[in-house]
TrEMBL record:
Record-level Gene Ontology MF annotations: 4-hydroxy-tetrahydrodipicolinate reductase; NADPH binding
Biological pathway: Amino-acid biosynthesis; L-lysine biosynthesis via DAP pathway; (S)-tetrahydrodipicolinate from L-aspartate: step 4/4
CDD domains to which the protein is assigned, alphabetical: DHDPR_N
Gene3D superfamilies xrefs: Dihydrodipicolinate Reductase, domain 2, NAD(P)-binding Rossmann-like Domain
Keyword Lipid metabolism in annotation: no
Class of enzymatic activity (EC top level): oxidoreductase
Protein keywords: Amino-acid biosynthesis, Chloroplast, Diaminopimelate biosynthesis, Lysine biosynthesis, NAD, NADP, Oxidoreductase, Plastid, Transit peptide
Protein name: 4-hydroxy-tetrahydrodipicolinate reductase
Coiled-coil residue spans: none
GO cellular component: chloroplast stroma
Major localisation: plastid
All copies of domain Dihydrodipicolinate reductase N-terminal, residue ranges: 53-164
Amino acid sequence: MLSLRAPPRTFSPAPWRRRGRHGRFAAPRCASAAAPAATLETASSPPASLSFPILVNGCTGKMGVSVAEAATKRGLHLVPVSFSSRENLDKTVQIGGTDIEIYGPSAREDVLSSVIDEYPDVVVVDYTAPDSVNSNAELYCNLGVPFVMGTTGGNKQLLYKAVQDSNNYALISPQMGKQVVALLAAMETIAERFPGAYSGYRLEVLESHQAGKLDTSGTAKDMIACFEKLGMSCDMDRIVKIRDPEQQLYMVGVPEEHIGGHAFHLYHMTSPDDSVSLEIQHNVCGRSIYAEGSVDAAVFLYKKVQSMDPKRIYNMIDVLEAGDMR
Ligand SMILES: NC(=O)C1=CN([C@@H]2O[C@H](COP(=O)(O)OP(=O)(O)OC[C@H]3O[C@@H](n4cnc5c(N)ncnc54)[C@H](O)[C@@H]3O)[C@@H](O)[C@H]2O)C=CC1
Ligand SMILES: O=C(O)C1=N[C@H](C(=O)O)C[C@H](O)C1
């Protein structure tokens, strides 16, 4: 993996480093702890007009908690069950007044079957870990429970195959933030309309996330697929992953209160003769944009299941296209 101490030849100095923390193009400011984006976003959200049971898998983790909280605030019925990769955890997590019981891997099939018996119209939202994506998806597909897969990583082909083969309903997206998804959709449109328009351009990609993030940004990978259609090449191994809090603070410009939860992305393109450069950034502080988007995704999928829509696999662009962009 590339480190910032040993940047690739085309990547010196790092675009974020070049600007410095307070430079003209420093990363845009995020809401401070005193005025968290989450408060603003959830406060303006109207309650859901419909309610249904939602099981959030991964309530021991940060996204799991955020989604469960957002679902409760929207008036959905939070199923008091979640799972863990560890046995004998014997743990209960309290979210919005609900005690969520956490079960280990050996109990998950029986427990999830009982949940489906009790709540036949339940939708699962998964925020676990990259190495659990495929086994969790197989479980949901075997039991025929519709799911939103927010967890990144895993084997994408196998994930889609599992859903296709089982004819289950699923919404899969490595990016649930609708405003970021809209940017991705725009990139896909540009790539389709102008294939090869940036042939020969060099692409440098940097992404910074909280230190606990295990995999490379799934969003960056989807953006890179668009850049490749436009004629640029970027080896996934050359994505610069920044996980060091010091670098995030002083080089990337992440506000200190968001070191533990942020997603900053920078794509820098340069023409073969260095005469042209272009840049795209999307910088998110906190997790509310994903939590709100995940609840929108669950509501969207629930409606598709209830209407027995023949299409089974969706993504967040489908949610935007359905007109749910706020
Ligand atoms: N699609 C999107 O918009 C977003 C996706 N993510 C992705 O969500 C995932 C989780 O992110 P965080 O909550 O920040 O991580 P985290 O590490 O805080 O939480 C993950 C939790 O899942 C648990 N876990 C692992 N394997 C499990 C299994 N098989 N069953 C049940 N629980 C299991 C872990 O013990 C941990 O508590 C990552 O893959 C991340 O990339 C994160 C933010 C937004
Ligand atoms: O792990 C995260 O935090 C995030 N993961 C997603 C990704 O890998 O693209 C979305 C966002 O970057 C936050």
